[in-house]
Amino acid sequence: MQAGTVLDGRYRLIEPVGAGGFGQVWRAHDPRVDRLVAVKVLTSDGSTDHDRQVARFAREAAVAGGLSHPHIVTVHDFGSAVRHGRPYAYLVMQLLPGKSLSAVLEAGQLPLPTALYAASCVADALDAAHEAGLTHRDIKPSNIMVRDDGEATVVDFGITKGSNDARHDITTTGVLIGTPAYMAPEALSGSFDHRSDLYSLGCVLFEAVTGRRPFTGTSWQLINQHLKEPPALLRTLRPDAPVELERLVSRLLAKNPAQRPDSADEVYDLLEEINDSYFGDTRPISAPPSSRGADITSEVHLHPDEATAGAVIPLRLTARETCLACAPRGDETRVLACTACKGEGRIVRDQRTLKVRIPAGVKDGQKVRLRELGAPGQHGGAPGDLYVTVHVTS
C-alpha cells in the first residue's frame, strides 16, 4: 500500500501512522461523510496465518463496533477486497489524537495525576466491556491511545473473549494469546476472565508510574515471574507515590484472581479517590471552576430474546431548555400561544442518537449505568452518566 491508494473504491490513504505484525495503520479520508479516519490494513503475505488474522479483524469490527463508550475506539467499517491480485482486509476506525501509551512512556514515567487519569479511563472502558460479557485479553501500553490531556482510549479488540459466544474465541492450541509482559498468571494457561484484564491494567499502571515494567526478561522468564515472583513494591521505585496507590497496584498484581479487586468499576472508583485525596483539581487557579455534567435517565424496551442475549440498540436523547421567548414572563396564556416552543415552555437544545449496548441477562426493570454518556461537563468537568431502565416486553 502507498499514499493515494483508494481502498474498495472509498477510503483514500494519506499517510501511515502505525505498524505492527498485522500490517499498517493509515490516516485516511472517507469522502462519503467527509471525515478523516484510521484504517488498519492487513495484506496477505501468502502465509497460512492470513485467514486467522482476517478472522481477528472481523471479530474486532464486531466486538468494538458493538460497544459505545467514550474510552473505547469507535469502529466504523470492515471489508476485504483484492488489489493487484493480492487479497487484503481493512478495518476503519475513529482517528484518535495523541500517541500510544507505549510511545509516551519512551520518555519515562508519567506525572502521577496523568498516570491515575489514564488508568481510570482504561478501567472505565474495561467496566463497559466486562458488563457486556467481554474480556479484552491484551491490555498493554501499545493498545492504549493517550491525548495530550491524559485522556486514554482502549483499542484493538481483536483477541477479545466473549463469555457466552464461542465465536469470540480464537485461541490456538499451544499458542499464548496475549502479550507475555502484561499477562495474568492464569492467562498463561489459557484461563481468562475479567480479573485477568485487571492484572494487565496493574502491569500498565505500574509501568506508567515507575517507568519500567513489573517483570522483564525473555518470554520464559516472564512466565516464571508472573507465576511465582512478586513485583517490586511501587514506592521503592517511585517514593512520592501515595501508599494507597501502592496497595491498589499490589492488589491488581495478585497471583490469585480472587485477591484482586472485584471489578473494573471498583478500580475506577479507587483511582478517583486517590486522585481526589492527593492531587485534587490540577487546573490553573485562574481557570473557571469545572463541574461534572448532569446524569441523564432514559428507558428502552427489549424483546425477551434481546434481554437474554444482549443487544446493541440506538437510543435517541433530547435535551431541552426553558423557552426564553415566553416562559420567563410567567404568563401561562403567553406560553400556550408561543410559536417558538408550541406551548410547551421548553425548546429542544440538542438531540443525539447513541448506539448503546445492553448486557446479556438484563432483567425487566433493571437500570443499566453507562458512564460519561450523560450531559457534558463544564470547563473540563467530566460528563454525567446515563442510566437506562430496561423494560422487557413480548
What distinguishing features does this structure have?
six-stranded antiparallel beta sheet; 3 domains; HSP40/DNAj peptide-binding domain; three-stranded antiparallel beta sheet; 10 helices; 27% helix; 394 residues; Transferase(Phosphotransferase), domain 1; globular; alpha+beta; single chain; Phosphorylase Kinase, domain 1
Task: Please explain how this structure is put together.
GO terms for molecular function: protein serine/threonine kinase activity. It is an enzyme of class 2 (transferase). Keywords: ATP-binding, Kinase, Nucleotide-binding, Plasmid, Serine/threonine-protein kinase, Transferase. Pfam families: DnaJ_C, Pkinase. Its EC number is 2.7.11.1. This protein is of the alpha+beta class and 394 residues long. It folds into three domains: 89 residues, Phosphorylase Kinase, domain 1; 180 residues, Orthogonal Bundle (Transferase(Phosphotransferase), domain 1), CATH 1.10.510.10; 97 residues, Urease metallochaperone UreE, N-terminal domain (HSP40/DNAj peptide-binding domain, Sandwich), CATH 2.60.260. Helices cover 27% and strands 26% of the residues. It is built from ten helices and 16 strands. A six-stranded antiparallel beta sheet has the order 1-2-3-4-6-5, with helices on one face. Helix 3 runs antiparallel to helix 4 and helix 3 packs antiparallel against helix 8. The relative contact order is 0.10.
